[in-house]
Write a structure and sequence with these properties.
homodimer; 3% strand; 249 residues; mainly alpha; 11 helices; elongated; Tetracycline Repressor, domain 2
């Protein structure tokens, strides 16, 4: 698996405050009604009646009916932003955004049944799909903003930041969808590590830990010498080049 | 410029039917009011009154007020889909999706003033931003669907298709935003070709035409020999390797 010990893993999200029980009760009531009657046919009044609380309590936790469908994204966005700004600037940037994207996967994986139910609901309701796109866009902006800072001095830094952030989000979502479509039947962390490993191989400046079965030439990188020479260069010159190459260790 | 002669260019969009004048009049009236009064403060009734037509005419062309802000996306999506399905399957896939993304840029560049006005409007109105995200998502799906077909037989083909499509869209949008922020002051085609050239260099299987100033090692690829050897390999073996390398031409 590609995560370093510095990357947050499930159960280690120190920033997550304990959720108020009323908030949980509202989410549970909402989903029970969405599944029984359909999303459009359920009103906020129906939800608060089932949860046994007043309308004001609902709107204390959720600005709208759509927000109750995605109750953990604000916390996850805050966790991601905190994680990205907590580094000392020495982290390999592509690895860092991959580890940040992993946090979103872990949020989904915390509640597999809920995540699969929501996935099915979101596919059926265009308004929820639009809401989800705006959430995904906020994650992508958080990753891109971090990369823009880190790649500021590089030529085309902004372009590369935007492209890498989009690639990370697409790889993450590919793995997340595979997991959701499987009904949470596959290992979500293995799926996301495989997908993000591919992005790190493409864009990273350090070798990614590869899922088993991948090419392993990089594992022996320190043992390998690469000589690039023009065809037609006299052999003695090539030999000289090899002989004078700086020794390692 | 990276586009081949096979890629559609401005003024060559054969599929574009002449636009009905009433539709254009509605768009013009809508934007005049959006700029004068603000988007939220303008109703469909205001728009049809200024354009001198009835409400039914408006809804014949536009399902909602949001749609009048993006009057050309449906045509552009149709053009893009037609372009992607018109190939003979021999095209290099990454180049093909880059050329398809270029169509969107050309649509914006057709009406620079309108595009810049809309960009400023969209930044101010969250609902329009959400609408735009859903449009961008449809473009990305069109590119990803094409790539999924083309990369079907490749290992992790779906993952690579999704990642490449996202990278293409991000690069395109980076260039588009640069152009819009400049008030249409820079060359939009040069900007998008530079951005897409970077994606083609990363993912493509053929060398992209590079914007001037880029590394040119690939230009001399046929003159270069790369020897990969383990450190500690006896020199005579390296020399033997070089001497017996297959000759080119």
């Amino acid at each position: 698996m590609s995560s370093s010990s510095a990357a947050p893993r499930r159960g280690e999200k120190s920033g997550a405050a304990a959720k108020p029980p009323m908030r949980d009760a509202l989410v549970a009531a909402a989903f029970r009604l969405f599944l029984e009657r359909g999303y459009e046919q359920t009103t906020v009044d129906d939800i608060v009646a089932l949860a046994g609380v007043g309308r004001r309590s609902f709107f204390r936790y959720f600005p709208s009916k759509e927000d109750v469908v995605f109750p953990d994204h604000e916390r996850c966005l805050a966790d991601m932003t905190a994680f990205l700004s907590s580094g000392d600037g020495a982290e390999e940037p592509v690895r860092r955004v991959c580890d940040a994207a992993r946090l979103v996967l872990l949020m989904y994986a915390e509640n597999p049944d809920f995540s699969v139910q929501r996935y099915r609901l979101t596919k059926q309701v265009p308004g929820l799909r639009a809401y989800e796109l705006s959430v995904v866009w906020r994650y992508e902006r958080a990753l891109a903003d971090y990369l823009r800072r880190r790649l500021r001095d590089r030529r085309d830094g902004t372009l590369h930041a935007d492209v890498i952030a989009a690639a990370v989000v697409a790889a993450h979502n590919n793995a997340l969808r595979s997991w959701l479509r499987s009904g949470a039947g596959i290992d979500p962390e293995a799926a996301v590590d495989h997908a993000l490993g591919s992005v790190r191989s493409t864009f990273g400046t350090e070798p990614a830990a590869r899922p088993s079965g991948w090419a392993t030439a990089q594992d022996r990188a320190e043992d390998v010498m690469v000589v690039v020479t023009r065809r037609g260069t006299p052999l003695w010159r090539v030999v000289q080049e090899i002989e004078t190459a700086p020794a390692r260790d």
